[in-house]
Amino acid sequence: xxxxxEPFVVNIGxxxxxxxGVFRMRTTLDGEVVVDMEPVFGYLHRGVEKLxxxxxxxxxxxxxxxxxxxxxxxxxxAYCLAVEKLGGIPVPERxxxxxxxxxxxxxxxxxxxxxxAFLNDCGAFMTPILYMLRxxxxxxxxxxxxxxxxxxxxxxxxxxxxxxxxxxxVPALGKFVKVMPRxxxxxxxxxxxxxxxxxRAKGVGILPKELAINISASGPVLRASxxxxxxxxxxxxxxxxxxxxxxxxxxxxxxxxxxRVRIEEMRQSVCILKQALEQLPQGEVxxxxxxxxxxxxxxxxxxxEAPRGELGFYLxxxxxxxxxxxxxxxxxxxxxxxxREMMVxxxxxxxxxxxxxxxxxxxEVDR
Amino acid sequence: MKFExxxxxxxxxxxxxxxxxxxxxxxxxxxxxxxxxxxxIRGNELVWSREKCTGCGSCAKACHIGAIEITTSINPVxxxxxxxxxxxxxxxCIQCGLCVEVCPFEALYMxxxxxxxxxxxxxxxxxKETMMETPDREVSGYFYPERAAKLxxxxxxxxxxxxxx
Amino acid sequence: xxxxxLPPDWPGGFWxxxxxxxxxxxxxxxxxxxxxxxxxxxxxAIMQARLGxxxxxxxxxxxxxxxxxxxxxxxxxxxxxxxxxVHWLAPVVAFIPLLMLFAxxxxxxxxxxxxxxxxxxxxxxxxxxxxxxxxMAGWASNNKYSLLGAMRQVASxxxxxxxxxxxxxxxxxxxxxxxxxxxxxxxxxxxxxxxPLGFLLFFIGALAEINRAxxxxxxxxxxxxxxxxxxxxxxxxxLFYLVEYGEALAISAIVTTLFLSGWRGPVLxxxxxxxxxxxxxxxVIVWVRTTVPRVRIDQLMALAWKFLFPLALLNLxxxxxxxxxxxxxxxxxxxLVNIAIMVILVLLWSRLFKLGWGRVEx
Lengths: 367, 165, 362
Hints:
The structure holds 3 protein chains of 3 kinds. Chain B is built from 4 helices and 5 strands.
């Protein structure tokens, strides 16, 4: 007698025990294997693009903080680059170096949370994420010293940075740069060769190279699939041409490669910080730009390599004090489009790991 | 898919975890012990100086939320407006600090204290009397380095790390 | 051979002996489980660079009391369409075998409730009844995910019984008797040195049987909800919680008796040695939980059948051959030989072990 089975639909629902924001996956399961998956998002939509049209160009900066709240400095930087491109506004050199320092520190902080949350999903009961949060606290202390807040900094301005760093910042950053490689080595010792992690994450959730390029993925997801593409090298912005660093790439494109790429990127960021600290010049930090800027009529697209991928801001101006159109190219949203192909054929426990390894921030996806 | 390394990976992980038994935990027991915040902290309230303020309203224009409300009347004594009401709704305020940056007369400061929770939403609104600088309502050094120099040094978690030579 | 410290009939008469030991076992179980809950939370917290509970009572010692109070004061929810009798009976069926297990654990020489001469066989038989209770819990909840979790639990317990029992037989071969007291007496050298492979297999198999990390997929995470005890609250949930820690205590006690030479030791009183060894084994269990991620269900089954089971058979064969061929050789030589064999076998088997079940084509 043959038992007839049929697939049933399960909601891995918005209020999730272990993922990164409010995201709903309508999975069709056949026993334990995922047969089909439909992502449903939009639970965190706040209308940021419309709100930006009612604020001045400088007043939009606190709004961009709250787009990808785990990488606020990167958001500020991308927006300021877009406005400076629009208005042709120069930036002093010390400000450029400070921007690079803040962006790289932010990259380390964001990757710490990404890797920690991924390992938490694998089941390692909070130990790796607590260790990584301890290092992130050190970075947040540095940010608090410079800007006054720990999560939404509002530090960068059009034409530079809002204020100069205090004098205890540079020695503290020097100590951080000396101390951090040892902690990254400790994370590697804890988990890099762990057999159970290898069994769970190697070969799981493969994103092939052609598919990654076709869906315009970017960031660590793209680099883990074998494509050597980093905006800091391909279309350099700010002063990135003056630093030497490698771009870590994976080979297969599975969850384990994405995890390794993020850890190696953290090492490269520490290397960039060391060089930036040595080359930091004296001078002004903000060029003479009024608070209410009126850029000439036109449009501009400013993009950077944010921790999650290519973050771009598209601005259209009509010579008034507020942007006419403000659009965000959110990397998490574009990376999310391949989730179905990555997940089909694996089991439910793998589905959660695959979702955790792409590193999505729902505030960016929904805006 | 093979088990690489024959169990040594797990053994290395176990050694890292057991090493932590010898280290001091990094948690701080709030509220018995508090860490000193940054000198530039954008605290939960604003501090206003009546003598320096001229009632120009730049802060209200810069606030993109609309949390500051100013009413002035013409009373040309010493070339200033008379500020009748000056209200800040700290419930709306997102502590971005744009108002402090914009003030041309250095009359507005961010507060230093951050434990300003109240029981009612109406108590969160600051008016002229509750915005003066008092020993209880300290001024943060955000955007004013000479005031920042008078505050105490921030506690850093980095201070616990030892740099190996 | 140490002499018995207490006569087997202490303090005199059958019913007095039975009564005293029932009280001792009950108090021991409750006190140790409460202590273990506190110990696990503090030890895990310090290994994660934070403090554990330290506000309820000095050093947080009253934290389990707070947990118990919280759980007792909760409302007792019974699913409307579930099978009510089975739902009520399941925690009871899961808890009673746990108490029965401690009847044959020797706390001291002669301090044992019943020195059965089939001691270890009794333990293996009784500890399997807990699984029936868990399956009843999954069935009576009228919830497909609980049923799935319970069925996984049954499958994994049945698979991991076999390597566990085979490694126990290795110990029994060295002792020559099934009685727990005799096993402790025969350990002039602790059996962890004489049977290192057996210890490893028993430890891994026991971790899988009691649902603790890295094999705790039956109750934590995944499958959206919390496994077989989703629909339980109040005192019944407290019983399941007690069963989890009680099983950890039972495994620690059994490992101490079988492999670490029970209550024997030089300076301290024997019952104190027993407690110290039990706490050390529990610390190792907590240490493993803090460090290692979870395995997937098919990897769990593959590990049992393709890795542990052949190694258990080989361990049995080698022990039997050694006893037959070298009955009078010095035991320390045997220790070295066994450790070498264990290392070689583990390395060899890890090379050959393949986990199947990658991506499924749909």
